[in-house]
Amino acid sequence: MKRSDFLRHVAALPLLGAAALGTRPARAQAPAPLRFAWDWAPQGYHAIWGLAEERGLFRDAGLRVQQDRGYGSGDTITKVATGAYDMGFADINALVQFNARNPNQRVIAVAMVFDRNPAAVVTLRRTGIRSAADLPGRNLGAPEGESSRVLFPVYARAAGIDPASVRWTSMTASLRESMLATGQVEAITGLMQSAVFGLRAAGVPAGDIVSLPYAEAGVDLYGHGIITSAAFAERNPEAVRSFVRASIGGLKAALADPKAGMAAMKKREALFDEALELERFNMTRDVAIMTESARRTGFGTLEPERMKRLVAINAEVNGIANPPAPESLFSTAFLPPQAERMP
Hints:
- The chain has about 350 residues and is α/β, with parallel strands linked by helices.
- It has 2 domains: about 30-115 and about 220-340, Periplasmic binding protein-like II (D-Maltodextrin-Binding Protein, domain 2, 3-Layer(aba) Sandwich); about 120-215, 3-Layer(aba) Sandwich (D-Maltodextrin-Binding Protein, domain 2), CATH 3.40.190.10.
- It is built from 16 helices and 10 strands.
- It has helices at about 5-20, 45-55, 55-60, 75-80, 95-100, 145-150, 150-160, 175-180, 190-200, 230-235, 235-255, 260-270, 275-290, 290-295, 305-320, 340, and strands spanning about 30-35, 65-70, 85-90, 105-110, 120-125, 140, 165-170, 185-190, 210-215, 225-230.
- The strands form 2 sheets. Strands 2-1-3-10-4 form a 5-stranded mixed sheet, with helices on both faces.
């Protein structure tokens, strides 16, 4: 080979290498980390996110989600507001008071999960309480500030009794069901699926438990939903949108195959009681998730008129003189198209 031909050959090698590199597929982008806090310790309905992870819905959405237990809706909301977590699952009724007190740390709901609030008065047959009319003069128990206790006056008025006609005993959430089981109080307030199965875990037979759901008295309020801070949503709209889509996919998967959802949670939590939590999931589905509204409008929906009522009711029972505007508490901009959200 002539020297001139050799030099031309060598000079062409970098160009050939660059062309070859250009034909290689681009390296897949690493999933974006996202920190998500539940409302409480692992329960059946958390299978929504257990299945979203197990079936790769988060991965397909470009997310790597860290899921941690919660310690109550108020705690989860605070952690989301301060940035300790990016998103959470909490009772959106609590947003009214939180945002009123912390306008510079606003937290918003971006998708509903409990379309109907599962708050209830729960008691035992031995007390003789069968309806709201039997509550006056009775001793009810709940933690101070617990959302169902805060909303009790709304239920009482809707059911036609005086809210002041009952006596209250306060305790920690961990003692609520045991104090009812041992007769220290005559009824308790709480989310029905939590109170009922807390009693079951305390050894109370299912047939001895009586539930008086607030919704059956006409209290039309949303319950728990997916939340994030307004600041995080503004900075990371695609992450919020992707998480909501994957969560709705996980909800549909759990509804279609609840046992698979319980198995997914068992892999996460060794002490998870699959049989008990399957019953809890089914109750949650029936009383809070699969509502007529959800069947009509799809999962995740937040309706302005219902949010307006929610703000008005919570402002009244909490004595909030200047409640936040309803539209400042939620956004539907992160929901998938309605066709993707239908049951």
